[in-house]
């Protein structure tokens, strides 16, 4: 292959994938003084990074990943002090609906006390003071995490890209598809783009599952990757003070990884029915109110192997949306339940116990993907940690 590489096309690090994971790799690499190019096949991120709630909730992660989530909180707040990213610190609250869920939040509170992560148990009355629209018959207690933040997922990543473009040694190449990556030649990695350019770098990180599959199909085939399809919706704008912060409810308590480390978890899960609509479609109910008063509500979970993506069709199921709304109405009395929009998102995740797919394809060519539903919460902290490993600090 003929190389058209020039000095202008060389970077210390090329990151393939402009979503939250890849963008934070670029951010931390710039802070190391590296020359960085961020490559994205679309004109802007269009997948999981912009199709989620924007809840940054380390409280939902297991103890290993909570370390990265807590570091992410620090990084988000640090960045917000420098530029507008839509970061808002209004905390997170888990609302328990029965005695089993109350037991789990009490046990998680103790776990977080031991880990020196601030949390506070709330009485039903304290929950209703914070959320006056909360239905009395639903709420049996709550667990608050005041340090947690939220972002607007459709804006944050674009603000972060704009901020990076103000930094020295940064280049972004959007609407650029990488078609081939050559192993090391003359101590450099060479990347061929769909525009006929050849870029070079000392190190490459591929952060997108689609590019992983295209560029390294055999590695992808054996990677234990899964896809998860989620449905969520947005309620029309209403008074902005209805739901401050991130609101997570009973089905979330029964689903999130952090609660699986509670002493009572196994016994409680063993008695749960598996034939309910909520269980079959992986429903749990999250509320997140945006600055304009609109409320993001959801979601569902449907899985398939990553090498069979067509098994997750493009349909939005009305029965799933109706079930989400019915359960939400059991929890809240909102001023309006008018649905403004609904959509689905698909993210990739790994079956590996580590919770992320990390693979070195060639020397200095690395794949990082499959972070699952913890990308917005964990990427900022995890990428900082992983770069330290990659550069052998």
TrEMBL record:
Gene3D superfamilies: D-Amino Acid Oxidase, subunit A, domain 2, FAD/NAD(P)-binding domain. Keywords: Flavoprotein, Oxidoreductase. SUPFAM superfamilies: FAD/NAD(P)-binding domain. GO terms for molecular function: oxidoreductase activity. InterPro entries: FAD-dep_OxRdtase, FAD-dependent_OxRdtase_HpnW, FAD/NAD-bd_sf. Pfam families: DAO (PF01266). Signal peptide: none annotated. Its cofactor is FAD. GO terms for cellular component: cytoplasm. It comes from the Bacteria. Residues 12-381 form the FAD dependent oxidoreductase domain. NCBIfam families: HpnW_proposed. Belongs to the DadA oxidoreductase family. This is FAD dependent oxidoreductase. The lineage of its organism: Bacteria, Pseudomonadati, Planctomycetota, Planctomycetia, Pirellulales.
